[in-house]
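Take a look at the protein record below and tell me what you see:
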Amino acid sequence: MKTSDEIRTRPYGEGVAELYCPRCGVANLHHTGVTLYDCGEDSPTVIKTSVLNGKVTVDPGAPNSKENPSSRRDGLVIDFWCEGCGDAPLQLCIAQHKGSTEIGWRYEPI
């Protein structure tokens, strides 16, 4: 998957902004699921909690893999599909790393 740290938005009312697709630039994104990775510092396992289609699943001993946006701590992934370029995987990732919060996209190029 490709990654990008460019988060493009456009003001869309009072205190709100539209998010643009990093692949095609369209603002018509639909979030479909959320996954949270709860990880103690440098732990080889995480508590992986996913919400998808009204169901919550928890895996208390998931391996800390590249799915987690943070290699060392907590991470959050929001899955999207785009009206402009289709339903290829598109993820907004937020990671905790050494006291900083990092944000970026992970996606399959068209």
The chain has one domain: 2-107. The beta strands are 2-4, 9-11, 17-19, 29-38, 45-52, 55-63, 75-82, 86-97, 100-107. DSSP finds no helices and nine strands in the chain. The longest strand covers residues 86-97.
